[in-house]
Amino acid sequence: MQEILSLNELLKQYTQGNLPKKDFEGRIFTGILENRRRFHLFNWSRDTCVDFLCWLYPRMSRAIDTYQDIGASFEAYIVSLVYWSAREYRSRQAAHDLTEHAFWEAHAQDMNPCDNEPVYLEPLSVIKPVSNPRQTLILLLKTYFFLSEDQISRIAPAIGVEETELQRLINELRRRRLERDEELRGLNERIQCQYFRYIVFKKKLESALEGSVHYERIKGQLERARIRYNRMRKRLAAMSHCATNREVAEVLGIPKGTVDSSLYAIKRKYQIREYAKPASANA
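The structure assignment produced for this chain is given below.
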């Protein structure tokens, strides 16, 4: 380690006009960089210290201009400034690292571009006419989100509906869906923000002293953030990609009760068929 520079002597040269301010500041920063322990920068790497000094420069420049000799030497003044500034810098860096970690963890799932893609059924070369076209049409409109354009063209003849008419019905449901997407996007953004807050509180709790007032306060904030996050996720899960029964009824121009009963009949038929499979297999 180099010999500690006399900051008082440097100040004397600066005030006498023998040392330009830029050179004066540079000599001070060199002294801090080469004598880090003297300025309480223990275990700081050279690169970290350089980053800190870049951050400190505006404050140091103002401190030089406002220094007045009121009992404390200039060197003690600078040592104190560096010490308290280093504590603030460490605190800001810790908060920045915590924020960055929480941000990336909260947005990690969004980085998969395939998460929100609908899963389409396997394409069929031939679709035979169905026994109950009306029920099938209602079911198709209910699950239109999972239909590809190719499937629409193949299904239309099987249910006795013109392809253009089926496409028109589905387009109307998609238009209505766009109006609901704004609400979905807003809820997704709020969920991301809430998850971000949850991670921040969790990390803060890990670094807090257990049993302290600060620990209990962070613990309460973490629990409230967790409860709110889970509630928002449940609300999002309830907002299905499928069309609502009321939307299907309005598009077809039929009562909602007709849609309800048709879907119930399909569900009931499927349940009976699944229930009968083991019996026929045993027979």
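Interim note for the steering committee: Residues 163-207 form the longest helix (45 residues). Residues 181 and 187 are 10 Å apart (CA to CA).
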